[in-house]
Design brief:
This protein is an alpha+beta fold. Helices cover 36% and strands 32% of the residues.
Amino acid sequence: MEFDLSRVLDALPAMVWIALPDGQLELINRRWSEYTGLSLDEARGSEWQTAAYPDDLPALLERWRSILASGQSGEMDARVRRFDGQYRRVRVQCSPMLDDAGRIIKWCGTVTDVEDFRRAEEVLRRRELDFQLIVDSIPLPVAVTAPSGEVEGLNQLTLDYFGKTFEELKGWKTSDVVHPDDLERTIAEQLAAHQGDHAYNVESRHRRADGVYRWYNVLGLPLRDQQGNILRWRPLADRHR
């Protein structure tokens, strides 16, 4: 039975392991072994811990003990040493296997390398931070919207002017941000520009944080990719009376 199970696990396109009810590692598949460079004998029981990054091991073990105590499915994140000596971030997901009486007889788990995904997330966060620093340095109210016109970003000057949060300003079409007498026309002109694939220039009154409406000229410029497709809109507001 163990031989047949090993063959099944080795055929799976993922790193898979099986542990005893107390959490001791019992079986690993070929992909897990190839990834870590550890054989079953080298990883059995608690020896698998040698593959974990030392600084991550205490938290990893604490989380694993918490899952064992709960008897429920769970997941863990840690850095694991690959066969080439490089530590990479992985996501470990596990679930209990129960007998007919509801007792845990095994733990089954998978290990997924998420290093590249995490690096991509970090690059994206840095780009978002750089973008925010740039727009916050512009001495004019600046917004960035999706091709459909939904607000995706605002600089600090815009938030300060209206005295509202980003979430509140995302719903500007149903608020008092734009003067009621100008709102319908403003929405219509922006919609026409979005549908017609051209820039727009709208004069409207905007409600300042102190409740006073001031006239602004809002110029909406499309940001395009190399094929000419609109990626974002960049509305710039300039007070003119």
